[in-house]
Give the backbone structure.
Amino acid sequence: MHIITLSHDIYHHSPVHPALKPPEIKQKTFISRGDGYNSFILNIENHSCTHVDAPAHFLEDGKKISDYKMEELVFLNPKIIDVPKGKEELVLLDDIQKFDLDNIDALFIKTGFESFRYDNSDEYINKNPSVSSEVVDYIRRCYPKIRCLGVDIISISSSKYPEIGREAHINAFKANNNFGEPLLLLEDMKLAHIKNDRLNKVIIIPWQIIDVDSAPCTVLAEIID
């Protein structure tokens, strides 16, 4: 087995959701200019690039990502499903119901739209597929062991269906006696290079910043050779 990342590198002006400003990475001190050390200033919004949304993102009393214990961010039975989607299409209930999701704790939806991140970042940002609120409700009602939902798109919501996206987030996060734990949402994942039959374990490592609702993160995956 070996370890890979399912998260994108952050670089100056990485593609981000249209509501955010791109990351700015500026070098502050330079050894080459006579300073004693190199250092950088990072100006990055907390929903930039690969990041993990926690319930406090949409719920006033929701759990913040800084409230999670590390063992809650480890997933021993993850699964990737292929649900090809084009520009501004919705991931619908029919797309998901064909898959066996029993006994998994993290579900990653591979739409294939990740290729636009490199080939046409403007469309990746502004024309992304999204996930219907019914899909999120179905996952929580029927598969309460699932604690994380991840996607290879910039967000589970889109500018074409903003209200559906808002409802999908709330369905992921709200408490309900008939559901399992609220979902963590991983957005802007790197999934194109990995197949489900090689995925063994996933660990989310968010930036450790107190009192933020959500955070950029590194997603480590243990892969079967």
